[in-house]
Amino acid sequence: MQIIHLSHHIGGTDVSGAAVLQQQNPAKADDLQITIPAADAHVVEQAVTAAKAAFAVFRDQGIEKRADALAKVQQLIMQHSDELSQLIARETGKTFADSKGEVGRAARIFGFFAGEALRIVGERLESTRNGAMVEVEYAPVGVIGQITPWNFPIAIPAWKIAPALAFGNTVVWKPSEISSATAARLMALIHEAGVLPGAVNMVLGGGETGAAICANAGIDALSFTGSQATGKKVRLAAMERAIPVQTEMGGVNALLVLADADVDAAVENALNGAFFAAGERCTATSRIVVEQAIADEFVSKLAARITQLKLGDPLDAATQIGPLASPNQKALISGQTAKMEQHPGAQLVCGGTAAELPACFFAPTLFDHAKANDPIALEEIFGPVAAVFRVKDYAEGLAMVNNSRFGLSAGLCTNSLKYAEHFKRYAKSGMIMINLPTAGIDYHVPFGGVGASSYGAREQGRAAKAFYTVAKTTYLKA
């Protein structure tokens, strides 16, 4: 049994606290135990004070120094890729292969924003008043409060921290208590890279720590990724103080499969989107909307592929699906799946709650003949559970896709350019996937949804500038 004791990181130094939370390896509880302190309002205030002091220096260090530091973080992440990947697998249950891919993505994000730090472009225009000019420049916001989830324990922190630093802000960051050891290693690498002490401060803890960040008067903007319920609290806290806020809160994502699609390819897209990463992705497919003409064939082939999936130790190279991230997560998914099993109409094809598995493992589960009022159509299931909704044609299928208060990622499998173009225009979703899984995104382009999925400016890519800077307009006359 390996035991890891964690500390907060404030102003460039570790700050200890009483261990009140813990996380174990969700695949093997006797392998790893992580003990975690919980920052109260006093510790959060220390972190905010350090971030404010650092901001006064950091914003004036110059873009090249910031770019060099971000590039160094990229290098260090890649140098420690295997170590980080193993830790993610042991701490969260994500397979080693998935973890390795995520680590690489996090490194690329820091590299991307190292370049963006050198490309903070403003504008100079003639004024409508003769003899005067107008300049528009983009200044840092200040101290950014960031709250990140456990399902992408290094990539999501990267896509929040890297742009914040690139544009000259400083950070008070609270990672999930389920992935705090991975967060601590990233924090150590950021410090090792030479980022100004206090520019990034990590405070550990649960919901009370996040609430303390949201309530602190020294926080100038809030960025959150997690559940809809918590995202609402974050938004309300930000609005109470009239500060910028962005919240990403998941989705009930749909993949529409038309009769003209390559059925085998569509099955693989559905399999990937619904079940890989144990379904613990905000872009995962939970609603598989299939045109009736091919529904029997599609369900039969998908069920056959599901039975071939290998569940097991995340560190085993043969494992395709690891466990859910925690016992609480397993209990939640079990309860949601039981509601579907008890709901009239939908038919269980494979998996389900009767498939009792050890530790935090949960069987990939598929329902058929689901309806628009079924629980899986109304609420996010953050696990390997999906349902097939049968429709008569494209029009009914699009209506089913759009029949959700969420709108993060929506996919279409078809060989028709006509339907692909129509879907791109009329699917109510922030991200559209054509003949691809709903899950799986690039790091250099905007990320976000519509409706209950997202609020505020987009994340990732060049779009991050909108949240992490303030446009300042200056009028000049000689």
Automatic annotation (TrEMBL):
Family annotation (InterPro entries): Ald_DH/histidinol_DH (IPR016161), Ald_DH_C (IPR016163), Ald_DH_CS_CYS (IPR016160), Ald_DH_N (IPR016162), Aldehyde_DH_dom (IPR015590)
Annotated keywords: Oxidoreductase
Residue span, Aldehyde dehydrogenase domain: 21-473
Protein name as it appears in the record: Aldehyde dehydrogenase family protein
Lineage, opening ranks: Bacteria, Pseudomonadati, Pseudomonadota, Gammaproteobacteria, Alteromonadales
